[in-house]
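Q: What would this chain look like folded?
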Amino acid sequence: MRQRRADLDASWVQAASLRIAERLFALPEFKRAEVICVYLSLPGEVQTKAILDVAWKVGKRVSVAGLRDDGEYMPVWITPDEPLMTSKFGVRQPATLHWAKPDRYDLAIVPGVAFSETGGRMGHGRGFYDRMLARLASRLTCRAGVCFGCQLVLDLPVTEHDVGMDVIVTEDAVIRTT
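A: My prediction, written as structure tokens:
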């Protein structure tokens, strides 16, 4: 699956990412969300710049994953002009970490290597996102996985530690899993 994603043409990734963003913006969960958690995309992933720009434009409070001293991720606030740095795992994050601790997160927009039509998610294998999502579970309303259609499979093996998605958004479809 990583190779499939790596083989995608960069201009196609940009165009497909914009289609995914448009589908995401049409979701009632996005429209009514006041506080969201999104990710800062890496090359080859669904690009999130358009998502971030629209979220800020319409007044949403936005957080992204920030690496704590203990090596775990938790949300940190981000603004449009925030200086960024690269964490030890190669993930971009704000240079100054302002930990986000709102009463609730209305929407988490989640990356992955693969997603299943039943809401399963395969990350990069270390469980960072699953642990972060599990810690937010009592305050998180909706988990939306975003991926390219080629990353969508019928089923994935899951364990009790894997956090499922409520909705999967691709460039061609919105799949409700709950």
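The domain at 2-176 is CATH 3.40.50.10420 (Rossmann fold).
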